[in-house]
Amino acid sequence: MRTPQRRRAACLLILLITIPLGLAVRMAPLGLSAFYVKYGGSVLWAMALYWLIAASLPQRSSRMLGAIAAAAATLLEFSRLWHTAATDAFRVTLAGRILLGTYFSFRNIAAYWLAIALAMLLDQWIVSRHVQDSRSRTIHGHG
Asked: pTM above the 0.85 mark?
């Protein structure tokens, strides 16, 4: 399998792990403090956004993916200041609360950017490790 397909598969796997973790932090009775529920959910939401974008664009660098994810998360946060009947009606549904959120906060933006930076580091580690593994297999005649 070529590198973009492997990267896509790895990103999708991480995404499929991140989504239920985020939902559990936000919805399951884990006994977490309000801070961890709020910002833990925000961090995992932003990481899921990064992994979705990375899976969609596996040939792009983690810096480019991070910039796209940070811009999308920031725009989405600012969209909370824009009110229409349709968006407000969607925001009060479970899907709307999960996908769009309800209240604007600069702290959310900071949490998103931190989470995206962490996802970028993990992505860089995965990619660099894969490149080293590929080189090792090629050098030793297994590629």
From this structure: yes
